[in-house]
Design goal:
Blueprint: H1 11-21, H2 26-37, H3 50-56, H4 74-83
Helix pairs in contact: 1-2
Length: 100
Protein backbone atom coordinates (compact mmCIF):
# COMPACT_ATOMS: atom_id res chain seq x y z
CA UNK A 1 0.00 0.00 0.00
CA UNK A 2 1.31 3.37 -1.01
CA UNK A 3 1.52 6.36 1.32
CA UNK A 4 -0.51 9.41 0.28
CA UNK A 5 2.72 11.36 -0.34
CA UNK A 6 3.55 8.96 -3.21
CA UNK A 7 0.15 9.31 -4.91
CA UNK A 8 1.41 11.26 -7.97
CA UNK A 9 4.48 9.14 -8.68
CA UNK A 10 4.85 6.83 -11.65
CA UNK A 11 6.32 3.31 -11.47
CA UNK A 12 9.93 4.38 -12.06
CA UNK A 13 9.66 7.09 -9.42
CA UNK A 14 8.27 4.48 -7.01
CA UNK A 15 11.42 2.43 -7.54
CA UNK A 16 13.63 5.45 -6.85
CA UNK A 17 11.83 6.11 -3.57
CA UNK A 18 12.06 2.42 -2.63
CA UNK A 19 15.79 2.50 -3.25
CA UNK A 20 16.13 5.23 -0.65
CA UNK A 21 13.86 3.83 2.06
CA UNK A 22 13.55 0.06 1.41
CA UNK A 23 16.50 -1.24 -0.65
CA UNK A 24 15.39 -4.81 0.10
CA UNK A 25 12.28 -4.22 -2.03
CA UNK A 26 14.02 -2.79 -5.10
CA UNK A 27 14.63 -6.06 -7.00
CA UNK A 28 10.99 -7.23 -6.83
CA UNK A 29 9.86 -3.72 -7.80
CA UNK A 30 12.20 -3.64 -10.79
CA UNK A 31 10.97 -7.08 -11.89
CA UNK A 32 7.38 -5.85 -11.65
CA UNK A 33 8.30 -2.70 -13.59
CA UNK A 34 9.95 -4.70 -16.39
CA UNK A 35 7.01 -7.13 -16.56
CA UNK A 36 4.57 -4.21 -16.71
CA UNK A 37 6.45 -2.21 -19.36
CA UNK A 38 8.03 -4.93 -21.52
CA UNK A 39 6.14 -8.09 -20.73
CA UNK A 40 6.41 -11.14 -18.51
CA UNK A 41 8.74 -12.95 -20.92
CA UNK A 42 11.54 -10.51 -19.99
CA UNK A 43 11.51 -11.54 -16.32
CA UNK A 44 10.67 -15.24 -16.61
CA UNK A 45 13.79 -17.36 -17.06
CA UNK A 46 13.64 -19.93 -19.84
CA UNK A 47 13.51 -23.58 -18.81
CA UNK A 48 16.92 -25.22 -18.63
CA UNK A 49 17.70 -27.32 -21.70
CA UNK A 50 19.98 -30.09 -20.44
CA UNK A 51 20.14 -31.87 -23.80
CA UNK A 52 21.12 -28.66 -25.57
CA UNK A 53 23.76 -27.85 -22.97
CA UNK A 54 25.14 -31.38 -23.22
CA UNK A 55 25.36 -31.05 -27.00
CA UNK A 56 27.42 -27.87 -26.56
CA UNK A 57 29.83 -29.48 -24.08
CA UNK A 58 32.95 -31.58 -24.66
CA UNK A 59 36.02 -32.73 -22.74
CA UNK A 60 37.45 -29.20 -22.89
CA UNK A 61 34.14 -27.46 -22.17
CA UNK A 62 32.45 -29.28 -19.28
CA UNK A 63 29.04 -28.52 -17.83
CA UNK A 64 29.33 -26.52 -14.61
CA UNK A 65 26.21 -25.88 -12.53
CA UNK A 66 26.16 -22.86 -10.21
CA UNK A 67 23.08 -23.32 -8.09
CA UNK A 68 20.97 -21.12 -5.89
CA UNK A 69 19.59 -22.38 -2.58
CA UNK A 70 16.89 -24.97 -3.13
CA UNK A 71 17.93 -25.80 -6.70
CA UNK A 72 18.96 -29.41 -7.24
CA UNK A 73 19.35 -30.65 -10.81
CA UNK A 74 21.04 -33.83 -9.53
CA UNK A 75 18.26 -36.32 -10.22
CA UNK A 76 17.62 -34.88 -13.69
CA UNK A 77 21.34 -34.91 -14.46
CA UNK A 78 21.87 -38.50 -13.29
CA UNK A 79 18.82 -39.68 -15.25
CA UNK A 80 20.08 -37.91 -18.38
CA UNK A 81 23.55 -39.46 -17.95
CA UNK A 82 21.97 -42.89 -17.61
CA UNK A 83 19.98 -42.37 -20.82
CA UNK A 84 23.19 -41.44 -22.64
CA UNK A 85 25.14 -44.34 -21.06
CA UNK A 86 27.64 -41.87 -19.59
CA UNK A 87 29.40 -41.67 -16.25
CA UNK A 88 29.43 -38.32 -14.51
CA UNK A 89 31.58 -36.86 -11.78
CA UNK A 90 30.25 -34.24 -9.45
CA UNK A 91 32.05 -32.07 -6.93
CA UNK A 92 30.17 -29.97 -4.38
CA UNK A 93 32.06 -26.79 -3.62
CA UNK A 94 29.57 -25.00 -1.40
CA UNK A 95 30.19 -24.15 2.24
CA UNK A 96 33.21 -26.33 2.90
CA UNK A 97 31.99 -29.32 0.87
CA UNK A 98 34.77 -29.25 -1.72
CA UNK A 99 38.06 -31.14 -1.78
CA UNK A 100 40.47 -30.33 1.01
Amino acid sequence: HRPKSMAGLNSLQDIMVLRCIRPDRVVPAVLDFIAEKLGEKFVTPPPFDLAGSYADSNNLTPLIFILSPGADPGSTLYKFAEEKNRDISSISLGQGQGPK
